[in-house]
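Shape matters. Shown next:

___
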Amino acid sequence: MGSGKRNRIIIIITRIQMNKSNVLIIGSGNRVQKTILPALCCLPNKYNIVGICSRTEKNLILPGGKRTIRTIIDMDTIDLRHVDIIIIAVTTEIIPEVIHSLTRQSVHHIVLFLDTPVLYMKHIHTARLFSLFRNVYVTEDYIAMPITDVVKRIVQTGVIGKLKQIYLFHSGYKYHALAFLRRILSEQSISTMIKKALSGAISEIHIRFPGGIRATIVEPKDYAAGRLLVIGEKGFISDYPLSGERAINIAYTFKNGIYGGMNISGEVVEKHRITNPLYWSIIRDLLDTSLINCIKIEGLIRLFESLSDQPFTYAYSYEEGLYDSAASAILDAYGFFIDARPPFVHESIMRKIIGIMKHVSSLM
């Protein structure tokens, strides 16, 4: 995204309001326009979007229709001194280029957000530059989705008994599914993953966690048809109508066809509604009003809203993202993944390997 020109006009970013964080977004594709921008535009009292970088110049109308931003095609022209947060949402292949460009300036005051898969393993050496930033997190909306918190909380109450199995029917995708599952189970690692092809279109991924709990992901991914089933010894949680002993059903609620929250019924009765006052005012400008995208928007609203919490409620470190990505990549390449944590050792073997790779590459 740099132009290579020597005589550049430097774009000076100023701080308009001391109580708002200045946000620079790098990338202007579907992820940014459909999900990240709508979430940030729901939090105008916390965040000020100061620029959007893109390979091509274009005008982007922010959701809500009150402001248009002209994209910046040369990142090197941006003065980062008053930028507080940078969100990178570009293809994984060019992330090293973007990180190297940013770190030509001082970035010690900047919180960096990256999408999974964070980095390809061939670019692991780029991770040595992450220490130059204030913090580096993953914009993993799956861990901040309300359904993740609801399921985790219900499981922790013990109402469905000891957790045995989780099924993701067409609703789990690689590292996002792993982040979702590990968040619910509070697991740092995975013991095994095995992928089994059942037909040309259908396959299953069987996962076992260190605590003995198992999960099954049924592919292909199809969020419109996707469903969740969480099974305990005494009951279960499903996001589709299913009756049985100690059944807990999660039903998504809609207003004019747009997702607005959840009703939990059965053994646990709760109502969850999107409470952000601007959510419904930007709906008319959404490029994607599908259920999964609206849930992702709500997840990012919750994630960005909690950034100032101590501790950051939905913090997902880049190390966590690298673990999920490496596990997914190995599964894709070989059809299986194995990890283990030796007795009296804090980290699993895979985490150690990633750490060693990062350290060795920093010495090169």
